[in-house]
Design goal:
The chain has helices at residues 118-135, 152-168, 195-201, 207-217, 230-242, 271-274, 278-284, 297-306, 309-314, 342-350, 368-376, and strands at 4-9, 17-18, 42-43, 57-58, 67-69, 81-83, 92-97, 116-117, 144-149, 177-183, 328-329, 334-335, 354-358, 390-391, 394-395. It is an alpha/beta fold. Strands 7-1-9-10-13 form a five-stranded parallel beta sheet, covered by helices on one side. A two-stranded antiparallel sheet has the order 2-11. It starts with a strand and ends with a strand.
């Protein structure tokens, strides 16, 4: 058992609580904070994959699964899988967690347990990982990295610090924490202010509009718009109109929300949730176009697959524990109490923990400009200069 453990907290969306597994390109979440792990939770076969699984899979509180949905037009039958040859499970044991409680197949047994938020989620995750290691003592010596994406940039650094504090206090079981990984992480309130400079740099808006926005809004956009500043509001609405057909999580992808005959209208307050729920719009679409080519299409396949009764039985989902599976839960009572995690990054770095923070260069939700800005605010020395990243002789980034 010498492989490292990667604990992945799947948290997608800045304003909404959406959960999906993208590190392995598989939306297969079947972990519950309420269900104990045992040998009876081992899975050897999965509906949609014709062979015995060529890897260890255990559901309940742990999931190791290098499978991807086969993306093809949905014909009413159970979606099928193909092996993902680039799976991280080749080098790591990976634990995916549905968090906070109420997302995926995780559930609460009492009404008070449904009340969650940033800090409550962190507390639950610390307890989850302790109990998981107690049930799996063979993994205690393995190096541990904790990973997340998007809104996990708020909760994950706090979680890592809580685990680190427990290690220093001698809390058992011992956790061999080595570091953490974050992709396009929301980190502090100023992240929003880099959306418009990003859009300008990507030529989505004109120089004239950008300069006018800077003058009128004083560099404060989105949540910081003053309703009394009519000039700023007018220019911002012009900005919204310019990007209304752009898929903000990847500006090069088609915006599949437009597949709906009556797409949801953009508003300043709900822009962040539009693309997050676009697979619902795909369900209602009457468009004859092949929308299975959209990035959201696997989300539809996951909905069909994971709500199949045979699949739920194969995944050992306890009957009556939770109703229909939804990728994004918009109804959770959630308390947003952590505004910035920059100081957590500084503290963890000072303690010697390793971190990998990466950004996609076409993400306008949490632009790479925002990530660069807070990293630079830490005033660390650059020891390796900016360079090309080459794959098979081609520049990939």
């Amino acid at each position: 058992m010498g492989r490292q453990i990667m604990m992945c907290l799947m948290s997608y969306g800045v304003q909404t609580l959406c959960y999906q597994v993208v590190l392995l390109e598989l939306l297969l979440i079947a972990c519950s904070l309420q269900v104990p792990v045992s040998a009876s939770n081992a899975v050897e076969f999965l509906p949609g994959f014709s062979e015995r699984l060529p890897f260890s899979l255990e559901t309940g509180a742990m999931l190791l699964s290098p499978l991807s949905f086969k993306v093809e037009p949905y014909n009413g039958s159970l979606p099928t899988f193909v092996l993902n040859h680039y799976s991280w499970t080749k080098i790591s044991s990976i634990v995916f967690v549905d968090s906070p409680v109420g997302t995926g197949f995780s559930y609460a047994k009492t009404s008070s347990a449904t009340m969650t938020g940033d800090l409550k989620q962190v507390q639950d995750l610390v307890q989850f990982f302790k109990k998981w290691l107690i049930d799996h003592p063979e993994f205690i010596s393995n190096p541990v990295y904790i990973a997340g994406d998007s809104y996990s940039g708020i909760t994950l650094p706090v979680l890592v610090q809580q685990i680190s504090n427990g290690i220093e206090e001698g809390v058992l079981p011992p956790i061999n924490l080595q570091g953490y990984i974050l992709g396009n992480p929301l980190t502090c309130p100023s992240d929003d202010n880099y959306i418009i400079p990003f859009a300008h740099g990507m030529a989505l808006i004109s120089d004239e509009l950008y300069n006018s926005l800077e003058r009128s809004c004083n560099g404060e956009y989105y949540k910081n718009i003053d309703p009394s500043n009519t000039k700023c509001l007018k220019e911002f609405q012009a900005f919204e109109k310019c990007i209304s057909g752009v898929r903000t999580v990847n500006i090069l992808d088609p915006d599949c929300a437009l597949a709906s005959p009556k797409p949801k209208q953009d508003k300043i307050s709900d822009r962040r949730s539009l693309n997050q729920n676009s697979e619902v719009l795909l369900l209602r679409s009457e468009s004859p176009l092949p929308w299975f080519g959209c990035q959201e299409y696997p989300h539809l396949l996951s909905r069909y697959w994971v709500n199949d009764p045979h699949v739920r039985r194969a995944l050992h989902i306890r009957e009556g524990s939770i109703g229909k599976w939804e990728r994004c839960n918009f109804s959770l009572p959630y308390e947003y109490s952590i505004r910035s995690t920059v100081e957590y990054h500084a503290n963890l770095s000072a303690k010697g923990y390793r971190s990998l923070v990466y950004s996609g260069d076409h993400d306008m939700e949490v632009p790479f400009l925002a990530t660069q800005a807070w990293i630079r605010s830490l005033n660390y020395s650059i020891v390796d200069d900016w360079r090309s990243w080459v794959v098979q002789g081609q520049v990939a980034g």
